[in-house]
TrEMBL record:
Domain Ig-like: 199-295
InterPro entries assigned to the protein according to its UniProt record, in alphabetical order: Ig-like_dom (IPR007110), Ig-like_dom_sf (IPR036179), Ig-like_fold (IPR013783), Ig_C1-set (IPR003597), MHC_class-I_related (IPR050208), MHC_I-like_Ag-recog_sf (IPR037055), MHC_I/II-like_Ag-recog (IPR011162)
SUPFAM superfamilies: Immunoglobulin, MHC antigen-recognition domain
Phylogenetic placement of the source organism: Eukaryota, Metazoa, Chordata, Craniata, Vertebrata
Name of this protein: Zinc-alpha-2-glycoprotein-like
Segments crossing the lipid bilayer: 302-323
GO cellular component: external side of plasma membrane; extracellular space
Swiss-Prot/TrEMBL keywords: Glycoprotein, Membrane, Signal, Transmembrane, Transmembrane helix
Region forming the signal peptide: 1-22
Pfam family, one: C1-set
Biological process, per Gene Ontology: immune response
Length: 345
């Protein structure tokens, strides 16, 4: 294969870059090759920014669609024109050759096979904090490259030859360190993505009949995606029980949702706990105390004075009702006696 098949994606470097806003943003590009029997694989190409789908393309429709946000029309038109040119001028063929080589090398008796190539990078302002590249076959990663490794890491022994081929064929390190961050900066410059939103955080508590205590910390409606939630006790981090997480999930409005749960150890009264939240829009970490146990019991155990007062009020009410009934009965008796006396006269 002649030269890299991916850098055509990053032609947007022709645009002038401004300093990236100080926030954590990520870019993920994924090429999926789907092959049935001996046909050339169909290629699906997607680009996500901050876990939101931005571009989509497939070789059947040959349409490049912008899925998210907007760009100034002249720049948008130039972008679409350049990308379509690159696709039509050989990028599809490069991708097909790559996928075909991989499929045949890994399994020569395939009928339906799926090959995926994923490139990922993450920036905090202008600082690159992560970069990875993965090749997967039928959903299983077989070769991986990141900024910390000196070369491709083979995940399955039987594909060592193919991973070696990847290492010798393309300057992948340049793709991860230079091209991917450059493209992410261009996208952040040109596209109006979701406005940054701080998380709305709620902390709740559940007391089970058997005495077990579960604490819930929920963050809603935040953007961008990166966020950190953890439990503290008396200001200290630690493992306080069985923890679980929903994972960061997308909402319909392009914001995100995350819930972390901790089931405390038996006999832990649940005092002194708080959920610590870190997000770009909060500035500094925010602390949200967990609610204390709501004591429930018999009313006279909770407040004897209230019980006594209630009893006295009830006694007074009953006495008043009895007195009224006696008074009414006395009046009726007197009226009856008067009527009887008049009749006898």
């Amino acid at each position: 294969m002649k030269g890299p098949f991916v850098p055509w994606l990053f032609i947007l470097g022709v645009f002038v870059l401004r300093e990236t806003q100080a926030a954590l943003h990520s870019l993920e590009t994924q090429f999926t090759g789907l092959a049935i029997t001996n046909n050339l694989p169909d290629i699906i190409f997607n680009v996500w920014v901050d876990s939101q789908l931005l571009f989509s393309y497939n070789t059947q429709s040959k349409e490049l669609l912008i899925k998210l946000g907007w760009a100034y029309p002249p720049l948008k038109n130039k972008l679409m024109e350049r990308l379509n040119q690159q696709l039509q001028q050989g990028a599809e063929d490069d991708l097909r050759r790559f996928c075909t080589y991989w499929m045949v090398s890994y399994n020569e008796t395939w009928e339906i096979q799926i090959t995926q190539v994923t490139v990922f990078c993450e920036l905090d302002g202008d600082i690159q904090v992560d970069s990875q590249m993965r090749v997967a076959f039928d959903g299983e990663t077989v070769c991986q490259l990141d900024e910390h490794s000196e070369g491709w890491v083979t995940k399955k022994a039987e594909v060592t030859r193919f991973c070696k081929y990847l290492e010798d064929s393309v300057q992948w390190d340049r793709l991860l360190i230079e091209e991917c961050p450059k493209f992410l900066k261009v996208v952040l410059d040109l596209f109006h993505l979701k406005e940054n939103e701080p998380p709305e955080v709620t902390v709740s508590r559940q007391d089970a009949p058997d005495g077990r205590i579960t604490l819930f910390c929920t963050a809603r409606g935040f953007y961008p995606r990166p966020i950190l939630l953890h439990w503290e006790k008396n200001g200290q981090m630690g493992i306080w029980g069985k923890e679980s997480s929903s994972g960061t999930l997308p909402n319909a409005d392009a914001t995100f949702y995350l819930q972390v749960i901790v089931e405390l150890q038996p006999r832990d009264p649940g005092e002194g706990y708080a959920c610590a939240v870190e997000h770009h829009q909060l500035g500094t970490p925010a602390i949200y105390p967990a609610p204390r146990k709501v004591t429930r019991g018999k009313s006279w155990e909770l407040s004897p004075s209230i019980s006594i007062t209630t009893i006295l009020v009830l006694i007074s009410a009953v006495t008043f009702i009895i007195w009224r009934k006696k008074d009414a009965w006395g009046h009726r008796t007197q009226e009856r006696n008067t009527e009887e006396g008049t009749s006898s006269c």
